[in-house]
Amino acid sequence: MHLEGGEQARMVTEQATTIYTCPDGTPFPVVWPEPENEQHGWRWDHLHVPLPLTPLAQRFSDSKRQGFDQAMDAMGAPAGPARVFANGFTYIRQQPFADDPTMREHMRARDLARRMDRIGALWEEQYRPEVEALTHALRSYAGLSLRALVERLEQLHAIDRRLGELHMLVMGPTQPGYLRLVEFCGPLYGAEAEQVAAELARGMPNRSLDSAQGLWDLSREAAARPAVAAVFRDAPVAELAARIPTVAGGATWWTLFQDYLDVFGLRTESFTELVLPSWQEQPRFPLLTIRAYLATPEESSPEALHAVSARVRERRQAEVEDRLAGDPERLARFRAILPVAQQRTVLIEDHNFYIDQQGPASLRLVLLAMGGALARQGSLVAAEDIFYVTEEEIRKAAAVPETDLRLIAAARRTERERWLHVIPPAFIGNGTVETNPFTRGFLGPDEGSEPEPGAVGGVAASPGVRRGRARLILTLEEAEKLEPGDILVTYATAPPWTPLFAVAGAVVTDAGGMLSHCAVVAREYGIPAVTGTRTATRRIPDGALITVDGTRGLVRVEA
User: Fold this and answer.
1) CA 525 to each of CA 40, 312, 494, 511, 519: distance values in angstroms, whole numbers, following the listed order
2) What is the CB neighbour count within 10 angstroms for residue 246?
3) Residues 508-535: tens digit of each pLDDT
4) Contact, 180 vs 341, CB < 8 A?
5) Which of 284, 304, 324 is the last residue of a domain?
6) Which of 225, 268, 264, 265 has the alpha carbon at shortest distance from 244?
7) Measured between alpha carbons, how far is 191 from 454 in angstroms, rounded to an integer?
8) Which of 338, 251, 288 is nearest to 477 (CA)?
9) N or C: which end of the chain has fewer CB within 10 A?
10) What CATH code is carried by the domain that includes residue 490?
11) Closest CA to 525 of 334, 377, 307
């Protein structure tokens, strides 16, 4: 796609700054870190990072990207991700490696042969134990002095790079394993092959399911204690933590809740933003989810919905095997490749739980300790302000305690707050945005569509039709708006959003393809989903009555 017209239009160029236009007309200045970057095409990564990042989160995001590159280079991938930041927003493009493409293809084939069919065992035996050791090491640093913490900044980046590398070493081989199943289904099912493959890979156990079911179980523990259930029903969410332990049965229930947070609480709603508190620090979202679950029928529990999904998978597998009964060789091939494809459903959630959630949450604890020390010496107002300063400024303040960073941090916080309320241009730069089946499967299409007048079109990510009230929820802070049966409309979802899928009647997102988190989890929960619309959060008003057709990939706005 050439970046011309509409929201991609360039207005003015002065020196190294280019002014683009946001969808609402807001000027969007981009200062290119290197002049040649402007000659490429960049797309806003609203699937993974829909909100502007704080300065320190940007710095650590670069370390993780370096880890991605290391893994993709090792696996012989043809291209790695490049990234620039504009007003805190993340823009990405595919960046080919510089060596011989033929040699790289040989590397890729060799590496896939080593990893793809063994990725489940590699995760359990090698990668996950290393991830757990790295995140434990991060948390252990939180008790160190300011000087010791600053001395370990490069070590923090090294851990973050390695976590990024492990992320890609795990997820890289799962993609071709899944696409191999789609290709196998092609001659059997034609245009329906992708949907059939999705059914064959659903209903698998994973840590996101465990997390959601844990909240469901806590809701039933609350229901069994009338005084606790009454607090959930009547008290403002801000008062739940203070009031629950004071009522009959509340202390016991709160202990169960803390046990849950010990296991599942090191997570936030972001893959990369470090300023957001974890569930352990601020349990507002899990408490909101428990309250919603109290009003949700038993047949909609995560475990019950997962059982339905597993039965769909089993029926589809039996059907495929019946079709192949007269061809023993192809049947054996199907049985060999199916478990490999199914590992993707498990690992897309499990790697995120251990790497993409516990990694940043653990890193946040270390940086908060550093920020607390700087606040105590007067360099910052509060520990959380550390995310709004740079590493160079942190080192200076640690060396010279009289350094005052309070005004700098406040100004950057104000600037980020301004951009939090703006939707940025979808594309920047002068070049073509390169896409391929791999990136489209995750990110979705480059453009929105209107399959019929007035309808919002996207990827038919999870089949079914559901009519309900749209609830525009852009962050988990707004999750309180979602009631059972409502349609969740958002930029994109991540594993911490998974508990909401037992509440929502359907999901619509701006970003994401058939292999995105939202698509996978919607199929697991058996609810319709349309992803990759590009414009749903702008075109669908909060509270509007809409019909979501996840089979055709369209959304009708009725009233």
Assistant:
1) 39, 11, 15, 19, 10
2) 11
3) 999 888 888 899 899 989 999 999 998 9
4) yes
5) 304
6) 225
7) 26
8) 288
9) C
10) 3.50.30.10
11) 307
Degrees to nearest 5, angle at CA 232 with 228 and 235: 115
User: Distance between CA 234 and CA 158 in Å, rounded?
Assistant: 47
Q: In the structure encoding, which two tokens stand for residue 111, read together?
A: 């590496």
The model's confidence at residue 107, banded by pLDDT at 50, 70 and 90, is: confident
- Classify residue 238 as exposed, middle or buried by CB count within 10 Å of its CB (0-12, 13-18, 19+): exposed
**276 lies in which domain range?**
207-304
Has residue 137 been placed in a domain? Answer: no
DSSP H or E stretch at residue 525: helix 517-525
For 241, counting Cβ atoms within 10 Å of its Cβ (0-12 exposed, 13-18 middle, 19+ buried), the class is: middle
Residue 176 identity = P
Residue 283 domain flag: yes
Contact at 8 Å (CB) between 517 and 492?
A: yes
Token pair 């997820």: residue: 171
Of residues 165, 205, 181, the one with CA closest to residue 64: 165
Considering the domain boundaries, does residue 130 fall inside one?
A: no
d(Cα 435, Cα 415) in Å, to the nearest integer? Answer: 32
Give me the helices (H) in 193-298, please: 193-200, 207-223, 226-234, 240-243, 250-264, 284-294
Which tokens sit at 49? 């990072």
- In tens, the pLDDT along 339-392 reads 999 999 999 999 999 999 999 999 999 999 999 999 999 999 999 999 999 999
Please check whether residue 502 is in contact with residue 480, taking contact to mean a CB–CB distance below 8 angstroms. no
What are the strands of the beta sheet with 89-96, ordered from one edge?
A: 79-86, 89-96, 41-44, 427-429
Domain end among 260, 279, 304 = 304
Token pair in block for residue 438: 């791999």
Q: Which residue has the tokens 């699937």?
A: 47
Count of domains in the chain?
2
- CB count within 10 Å of CB 444 equals 30
